[in-house]
């Protein structure tokens, strides 16, 4: 059943799923089973913050607030609000002086990652951040394979542009595995994706002099 | 009249004012009169993004969504939600490879900036970002004087710590003017605060070698 934004544009399934996730994450959990990718990344970010390794947050969902009640002696209640389409990616922050900016996406596919998981505004945002020497990437999970990758924004954008010119509609797992950096689940944190970022930085030109005007 | 978060803690007046501001900013405006500091900064950020000068956004207000209706053929409506206390500052993004992170604050005082405008969680967040070599600061407006400054987080944190040890409850304008960087209103953008950041970076040790693991 399709829903629509107040401006008439189609309401996206991933945005639709978010309020539910947000509720779930606020409950007490006694194990990690059934954790969503988002919850696992949030938990990992919390780990990184607590140990002064990085300061990275998921951005709140942007809402258009229309009506707020202020009951006496209790919390203000929002009585009418609408989801707005985010103009950026979901996560950003700072790691050893680097600006990190990323999205997290999952697929049940086994051989490739469908580009329909991304939206034009996310690609545009990543392009802009890359031009500012930000470190942009996606954390991609192949659910059925139980494999997780950090895949840099540059090749993703190349695939995106090829698609809009009639190219293929997905990125092959081979390519993600070759150009990306695999992340292996661990205990602390659950998703140690900054290890992959260290590898990405080691191979990146950003680290080698064109940064910070030297 | 005091309001409270669902957890019982006091609901802050600046958070309370936000939904109103958010609505106003979505309307069409025909001049700049009566623009809030937040709106002016948002507009300046838009200018910077459009010209590929920097990618900086205000973060959405964090909400706890409790109830959502999905009416047929129209946008999902949030019917019950609560404000949550933000754990970070309001603005962040990337500028020439630098991670920027800041708050915007106003005072009607003429001789000093009251520290009560800041909250512990904002100070803690700035401290963490500084340890990651982020560029942290506040944009401070003295409303009655019509003067605007970029004031770095480090001296702010020093004042904050002194206050908690019985020191003075505000930062003198003299000090802000001496240690900070004055920003002069302009047309494009309204608040050219990145000029002040250039000055801040020129005097900063972050720029001189301890950055990016050299």
Write the layout of secondary structure elements.
2 copies of one chain form a homodimer.
Chain A: H1 13-26, H2 37-50, E1 55-58, E2 63-69, E3 77-83, E4 91-95, E5 98-107, E6 112-114, H3 120-131, E7 135-142, E8 147-152, H4 153-164, E9 170-172, H5 173-179, E10 181-183, H6 193-202
Parallel strand pairs in A: 5-7
Antiparallel strand pairs in A: 1-4, 2-3, 4-5, 6-9, 7-8, 8-10
Structure description:
2 copies of one chain form a homodimer. Chain A is an alpha+beta fold and about 210 residues long. Chain A has one domain (about 15-205): Trna Endonuclease, Chain: A, domain 1. Chain A is about 30% helix and about 25% strand. The first copy, chain A, is built from 6 helices and 10 strands, in the order ααββββββαββαβαβα. Chain A has helices at about 15-25, 35-50, 120-130, 155-165, 175-180, 195-200; strands at about 55-60, 65-70, 75-85, 90-95, 100-105, 110-115, 135-140, 145-150, 170, 180-185. Chain A has a 6-stranded mixed sheet. In chain A, strands 2-3 form a two-stranded antiparallel sheet. In chain A, strand 7 and strand 8 form a beta hairpin. The longest helix of chain A is centred in the first third of the chain and has 14 residues, at about 15-25. Chain A is globular. The first copy, chain A, starts with 12 loop residues before the first helix and ends in a 12-residue tail after the last helix. Residues about 15-30 of chain A have low confidence and may be disordered. Chains A and B meet through helix 1, strand 2, strand 3, strand 4 and strand 5 of A and helix 1, strand 2, strand 3, strand 4 and strand 5 of B.
